[in-house]
């Protein structure tokens, strides 16, 4: 179990990072049907949602290891109240999507809490014991209880993955960095509708000596977790 494991080194960029596992949580960002599946918000914006599927298997592997080890697991979901009182007009009105936030779609109202499309994909569905943070914005700290949760559990390090790399993942990592958390972004556990944005999003995080955090692939994270318990 990682709650009694010794610290270990994750092979990462721009340099290896030593993690104290009892003070580390897995944060899975917005792996929701509205972003991942046809008919959801991502597709209404004209995106190829199949681009995001590549992140599911790597996240699943780390999620399984985290569960087996007793690591704190936190899932986030972006979405809004049914009356849209927490959705700024500028967000609802931007662009020319085929359906806007709140409109009826194949999986219920687009990006609305409680609708089928707002929920997490079956492959990564949270256990009843895991924490789910509902957020109205792109960052997981804005207007949520995430900061209080991390403080309660004594978390100092975050393993971050999810979608999309350049939007909700990057925004959350930047918010976390400003709050003093050390973030390791799982490169193959993130994805974007635009592969070039995924690549640049990761580069932004690890640039200038890790200005926002570290980047490692799932294999490196899994190996470090294994080493810490042997």
TrEMBL record:
Keywords (A to Z) from UniProt: Hydrolase
Q: Which GO terms describe its molecular function?
A: hydrolase activity
Domain Isochorismatase-like, residue spans: 24-216
Record bears the keyword DNA-binding: no
Under Gene3D superfamilies, the record lists: Isochorismatase-like
The record's listing under InterPro entries reads: Isochorismatase-like_dom (IPR000868), Isochorismatase-like_hydrls (IPR050272), Isochorismatase-like_sf (IPR036380)
Q: What Pfam families does the record tag this protein with?
A: Isochorismatase
Q: Which SUPFAM superfamilies match?
A: Isochorismatase-like hydrolases
Q: Which domain of life is it from?
A: Bacteria
Its protein name is Cysteine hydrolase
């Amino acid at each position: 179990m990682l709650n009694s494991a010794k610290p270990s080194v994750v092979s990462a960029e721009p340099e290896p990072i030593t993690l104290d596992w009892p003070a580390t949580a897995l944060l899975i960002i917005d792996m929701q049907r509205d972003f991942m599946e046809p008919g959801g918000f991502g597709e209404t914006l004209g995106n190829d949602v199949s681009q995001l599927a590549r992140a599911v298997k790597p996240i699943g592997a780390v999620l399984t290891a985290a569960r087996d080890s007793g690591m704190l697991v936190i899932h986030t979901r972006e979405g809004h109240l049914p009356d849209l009182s927490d959705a700024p007009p500028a967000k609802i009105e931007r662009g020319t999507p085929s359906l806007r936030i709140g409109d009826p779609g194949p999986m219920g109202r687009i990006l609305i809490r409680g609708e089928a499309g707002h929920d997490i994909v079956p492959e990564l569905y949270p256990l009843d014991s895991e924490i789910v943070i509902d957020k109205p914005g792109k960052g997981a700290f804005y207007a949520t209880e995430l900061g209080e949760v991390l403080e309660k559990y004594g978390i100092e390090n975050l393993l971050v993955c999810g979608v999309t790399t350049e939007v909700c993942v990057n925004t959350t990592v930047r918010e976390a960095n400003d709050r003093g958390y050390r973030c390791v972004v799982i490169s193959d556990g993130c994805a974007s509708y635009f592969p070039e944005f995924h690549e640049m999003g990761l580069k932004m995080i690890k640039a200038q000596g890790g200005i926002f955090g570290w980047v490692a692939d799932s294999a490196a994270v899994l190996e470090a977790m294994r080493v810490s318990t042997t």
